[in-house]
Amino acid sequence: MVKNQSGAQPDEPVFNKAPLIAVLLSGAFVAILNQTLLATALPHIMADLQLDANTAQWLQSVFMLVNGIMIPITAFLIERFTTRALFLTAMTIFGLGTLMCAIAPVFSILMAGRVLQAAGAGIIMPLMQTIMFMIFPIEKRGSAMGMFGLVIAFAPAIGPTLSGLIVDHFPWRSLFYVILPIVILDIIFAYLLLKNVTNRTFPKLDILSIILSTLGFGGLLYGFSAAGNSGWTSMQVVLSLLIGALALVWFIFRQLKLEQPILEFRVFKYSVFTITTVLGMVLFIAMIGAAVILPLMMQNMLGFSALESGLALLPGALLMGIMSPITGRLFDKFGARWLSIIGVTILVITTFMFAIFTEETTFTYIAAVNAIRMFGISMVMMPVTTAGLNQLPTKLIPHGTAMNNTMRQVAGSVGTALLVTVMTSNSIPDQGVAGMLHGVNISFIVAAIFAVIALIMAFFIKNSRPENPDDIRPR
């Protein structure tokens, strides 16, 4: 990449970014949308394929599991293959998985399709973040990541609502037929418009690192996911967490010794990156309460339909989507510190407001408080991500994006398992709906405590725009 005549920085390519961003956002949108699309369709799939709840739930769990395994490996893939080849391959794998799900006559083929979808999606997300950081200079990255935040906010929240609308009128396979044309169009436009913007360093493939990464992150993600249903003391949970932890420790030590690691853990030598990554994880744990607990509570305790529970989350998703580009511009102007402090303060207050549910709680209250909550999150999520990645040299950005996505995936699993466990263990079934709502309220108190921790951490965010990222020294 060369410096243009207008004096742009060497890191800033001179081609038209708009088509490239459109292609990337479209790919990310279907990848994230797909993660929550089956939420309200599972009962229809269970009835059609004659599955029990535990078996059907694997359609959700396996997506998160494979997605989490693929993300750490993506840093290696970004340095090994061209931008175009990697994105087209990831979208093609995702498209093949979508087609398999659409025509799946039996559960095993449906599961295989979900695995392929997750493998493609796990590459797309960190690749997109890396490309964004490569094609935009530091002073414009906030706005660019704001557009990315719009996709992250909007896609998963409309999934349950869209799914509810479709499966109420059409067979569940229609969900995948809706996604497939978007994927095909995105592949065509990517082939025509996508540029090679990442630098290839051709790292050596260390098979042992791949195995340890898969066992480490896969074991932890599976263990935390299974804990929500099976309990923390079950053999499968304890064994998977133990294997995952041991493999991950071995993986980390091996990466520190390799000249060309699969995933560079030295990114944590940059203090702002470390703080913002941990803050993002804590925020994810607090945020996951609304995404997981609210639909369960609304359907199982307050008598709302699946569509209504999805609609309750929609205003918050729309507000977060609208705000993400705005907060991106505010970040470019003011940095992440005060945006984070104000946003997390809103999150703390609204999370405590979710800890006082009763049988008389209305749909309007849930939707309104969740919307304000998502407004607060929109002020934090992308700004802290951008602030942390801004601290890294260009060569470490693929590792930073992979690490950031991996840690949040782990935090999401931990948060889901923890809050579901807290909810079920504190429910009092003998007291009817009020007793079950007691467990919900306690889970949101725990989520609020995590939000308070995030608020304290927000005060430690310092400068978020170094003058020259390639001259950065760890600190």
TrEMBL record:
Keywords: Cell membrane, Membrane, Transmembrane, Transmembrane helix, Transport
Topology of the protein relative to the lipid bilayer: Multi-pass membrane protein
GO cellular-component term (any): plasma membrane
Transmembrane segments: 20-46, 58-78, 85-110, 116-136, 148-168, 174-193, 205-225, 231-253, 273-298, 310-331, 338-357, 363-389, 410-428, 440-461
Pfam family, one: MFS_1
Chief location of this protein within or outside the cell: membrane
Superkingdom in the source lineage: Bacteria
All residue ranges annotated as the Major facilitator superfamily (MFS) profile domain in the record: 20-466
Entry's localization field: Cell membrane
InterPro entries, sorted: EmrB-like, MFS, MFS_dom, MFS_trans_sf
Molecular functions per Gene Ontology: transmembrane transporter activity
Entry keyword annotation includes Transmembrane: yes
The name this protein goes by in its record: DHA2 family efflux MFS transporter permease subunit
Organism ancestry: Bacteria, Bacillati, Bacillota, Bacilli, Bacillales
